[in-house]
Amino acid sequence: MTFKNLPPAGQIRYCRDKLARVDELEKQVRGMPSTQQSRETLRDLATARGEYIKALKRLENPSLWQRINRWVNEWAAEDRAREAARKRRRGCTSCNGTGQVTGAGNWFESCRSCHGTGQYREYL
């Protein structure tokens, strides 16, 4: 699961975990002898820490537009779930949910649209 797919609480937890990991790495690097590579590593860790802190602040104190966008996305997800449930409950339009073709000479012939299930099938 990617960072963007996590819920807001999961994103906050992820940022805090990464900040703790950056702190651990910094302690390890500071314990080593000072070289050009260790100074570059400390600079990279400071940059990463700043990015995680910015992301954490943005998540903990979202702007009005971010809150509205989150509410709209949550509402849209609930609406998609309701629509999918409604489609699953809908009967086949060809056989009216019976699974058998009416008007055909043989009552035991199954409906070609739903293959005799009586349930609506969505074709892509």
TrEMBL record:
Among SUPFAM superfamilies, the record links this protein to:
DnaJ/Hsp40 cysteine-rich domain
InterPro entries documented for this protein:
Antitermination_sf, HSP_DnaJ_Cys-rich_dom_sf
Gene3D superfamilies assigned = 1.10.274.110
Protein name in the entry: Uncharacterized protein
